[in-house]
User: Fold this.
Amino acid sequence: MSAASEWRETRNVAARVRLERALPAVFPAAVLAHALSRPLVPPTPRLAVESYWRHHLVRADRLARGLAARSGTPEGWTWRLGALREDGLPLSFRMPPAPFREPAFARERGHCRICGQPVYRFGWHADLWGAGVPNRNAGWHAACVAAWKLWTAPAEQVKALKARQRHRCAESGKRLLRTAEVDHRTPLYRVWREHREAPWPVLLGYWGVPNLQVVNRTIHAAKCAEEAGERAQRRRDLPPPG
Assistant:
């Protein structure tokens, strides 16, 4: 056994002991199985939950959007852009709208700033422990954190998205190359222009897995050029100001 393997085995034995000591009587079985199968075992239940969602991005995306649908669009909310981070508004249409991050629509402590639903122990989305109240020290579901990272930086999750497509280009059907890139099927500028009034949970789908695809770089470049031409033509067609 190499020194690295010996260190990892020693470290994992200690991590398993620590994890099992901290486990409550009720804990998601899938999360525990995932944690014990990792090359480096998470030493705490919270880290196990975070690792689970980080490695199951499609599930996290689906759950986060489902929780948002449960909350619904807050009354009086509209998708707007802002100039200051302090106002909670996205600075660009490329950022997903998040009404519960805005001070005017923020919910009380213990509710997720992304989906608006209660957050329970370990960042879980359901009250498996019968507490009856959310964890008032928590502001995010672990699943929503993973989904938010996917929505805001999908290019960093290209490996997982490639696997979901079985390493085939979504446009040509050919094998994805190492240089393949993540693309939004419906461009986000078009979402802002044409779908701005859609219900908020529906809007989130344009940042999530339903609107994400991996394509080879040449196809992505051609698609981007076509979209740039469309935007330029639209600007030329606009009537002059005044």
The chain has two domains: 3-145, 153-237. The first helix runs from residue 3 to 22. Strands lie at 181-184, 212-215. Residues 153-237 form one domain.
